Amino acid sequence: MSDTSAVSLVCCDVLGAAAVDGRVLERAFAEAIATQGVVTGTAAYTRSMVQFDRTRGWSPAEVMRTLFPAEEIRAQAANLAFERSFQAAVDRFGTLPLPGANEALAKLTAAGVKVCLVSSLSRSALSLIVERLDWWHRADLVLCADDVARGFPWPDLVLTAVLRLGIGDVREVALVTASESGVLAGRRAGAGFVIGMLSDADDAGRLRRAGATHLLADIGELPDLAASQPAVTTIGQVAD
Questions:
Q1: Residues 85-120, buried b or exposed e (16+ Cβ, 10 A)?
Q2: Long-range contacts of range 108-112, CB-CB < 8 Å, 24 or more positions apart?
Q3: Taking the model in full, what pTM does it have?
Q4: Which of 88, 103, 181, 217 is deepest in the core (most CB within 10 A)?
Q5: pLDDT one digit per residue (tens) for the chain, 240 residues
Q6: Helix (H, G, I), strand (E, B) or coil at 116
Q7: Beta pairing partners, 13
């Protein structure tokens, strides 16, 4: 019989899954593309905001490259503008943890589950959020787009967490995310549990279609969900 816990690592996507970003991300994006002449009321702006919505969870640098595919200098300039606008938007609007998030992360740690905060934001942007939430002590590891070759929807963030924290089986990983790209990253990494966080009525269908194995409307339920999962079965072992 195996005494291995079903979930030994929770990778928590900071934006949307653990912290309320609200208007911050969208406002910063709109201000960034405005520096490149893409302003409210134009067809280009509408197309850009549709693309922003489709690529939620991607690194801002990659989103800008999709908007300016043949103009790397413009894409880089827009990304630099995003970094400035993001900090300013956080200063104006603030950022708060989802109700129950602090308690959920504390319970996971108390249960011996490792916690990795992940995001496709840059190091400076993610550090700003973690600092404002006072979450440095909540995690065993914090990973951002600058730590990996590719952010969401690729599996690099999850797999890097597995390697750095010495997790023996990627099936013992639970990824918590509110974006389709995050769900896809978890599936590509082979995470045993890919948990989609719900914020509105349309989320369930899109996250299920992306491959979420579980859905939660309240992150406070995460520790109980992690504890309720059957243990991973490996060769020569059977689950408890």
A1: bbeebbeeeebebbeebbebbebbbeeebbbbbbbb
A2: 108/10, 108/222, 108/223, 108/226, 109/138, 111/223, 111/226, 111/227, 112/5, 112/8
A3: 0.90
A4: 181
A5: 344 458 999 999 998 888 876 678 999 999 999 999 999 999 999 999 999 999 999 999 999 999 999 999 999 999 999 999 999 999 988 889 999 999 999 999 999 999 999 999 999 999 999 999 999 999 999 999 999 999 999 999 999 999 999 999 999 999 999 999 999 999 999 999 999 999 876 689 999 999 999 999 999 999 999 998 776 554 444 333
A6: strand
A7: 118
Quick check: helix, strand or coil at residue 140?
A: coil
Name the DSSP class of 138.
G
Both tokens of 85, joined, read: 């606008």
Question: Which two tokens mark 123?
Answer: 């190091």
Query: For residues 61 and 214, what is the distance between their CA atoms, to the nearest angstrom?
Result: 30
Taking CA atoms, 91 is separated from 34, 63, 102, 134, 135, in Å, by 20, 23, 21, 15, 17
The amino acid at residue 185 is A
